[in-house]
Specification:
Length: 166
Amino acid sequence: MRAILAITALLALAGCVSDSQPEQPAMYLSMANGGATLDPQAAASMISQYRQNNGLGKVVVDPELVKLAEAQSMAMASRNKLDHDVKGPLARRLGASGYPAKSAVENVSAGYHTLAEAFSGWRDSPPHRANMLSRDVTKLGIAASYAPNTKYKVFWTLILASTDAR
């Protein structure tokens, strides 16, 4: 009888085991494949936490800034060139889109495959860190573009801005 109960318990436990892997956190999802989608909310959460740890307010995702970041990342990827000005200076790009920025800064990078890697690279670079810790920003747009036949594979753009006078 004990053997039957033990076997029944083992079978019940085996039914709880799944072949599927737990979902990977968005910050560790590799952008180095054509089907990957960056989660701007995960980026806003990560950057907001970093800002709050440094005595600053959070940032929220702005869909217009996301579109501008996507355009910049795609332009860098299509030209295989890491450059803030590949589509023109940030101020000109913001103005051409009609975005009413009172303050804006931009981080670009390439070669990082995950949001966590890009964030760490920016955090460890004094000018990029200063942008993420700007007191004058409240919104962000972020994008990663995958270009498999390029040197870097993944091109990143982070635009931080505010539409409020500070």
